[in-house]
Design brief:
This protein is of the alpha/beta class. It is built from 8 helices and 6 strands. 35% of the residues lie in helices and 12% in strands.
């Protein structure tokens, strides 16, 4: 069984999609606080997450709590920290049953200090830049400007990539894929390597 770890996730739909993927693959979902949304029964029902009761999910007060409760060290070989700040790609990594695939928050990724504490555990998903992969990147930005947003709105829009993910231009986090896409890509590679049924 693999473990998907979301460090301070902010968008409930991403967490919901990842939870669904965990249910169908038998993976355990770990949510490291702070969360950008509530997990109370009413919120889960309203979001239509009918599968939530079938999800193996644990919530933690923070990173140290997560490490302690799972018997991990900050640079444990079972950790795979997904970030653009890595030389090795996820496909160059070796996955074993019980490994932890760690993804950071949508707006800021995994904190720099966690990456610096375990650089050999860092992995990235290779992808083209938005301007190289999308012919209409300039048209998208022009369209957003034509909607008559205020200057503050315009600045917020420019902090999003073509897929609507928030982007910090000084950061190297995954921006062209949303969190749920990224988690699925890496999880399925890990499952492939460990001969998951039907692959």
């Amino acid at each position: 069984m693999f473990n998907i770890v979301l460090y301070a996730p902010e968008i409930p739909a991403n967490t919901g999609n990842i939870g669904r993927t965990c249910v169908v693959t038998g993976a355990h979902l770990h949510l490291v606080e702070p969360l950008g949304f509530s997990l109370d029964d009413k919120t889960v029902r309203r979001a239509g997450l009918g599968y939530w009761q079938n999800l193996d999910v644990t919530t933690y007060a923070g990173w140290e709590d997560f490490l302690a409760r799972n018997g991990l060290s900050p640079a444990d070989e079972r950790l795979h920290l997904l970030t653009k700040k890595a030389r090795r790609t996820y496909a160059q990594s070796t996955y074993r049953d019980g490994d932890y695939l760690v993804f950071g928050s949508e707006s800021s990724g995994i904190p720099e200090e966690l990456l610096a504490a375990a650089p050999e555990r860092c992995e990235r998903i290779p992808m083209l830049r938005d301007c190289d992969s999308l012919d209409n990147a300039e048209a998208w930005e022009a369209h957003e400007e034509s909607l008559g947003h205020t200057e503050d709105d315009h600045e917020a829009i420019l902090r999003q990539d073509i897929c609507g993910n928030f982007v910090n231009p000084d950061d190297y986090r995954i921006s062209a894929l949303n969190l749920s896409n990224s988690a699925a890509i890496v999880l399925y590679e890990a499952l492939r390597q460990t001969n998951f049924a039907g692959m």
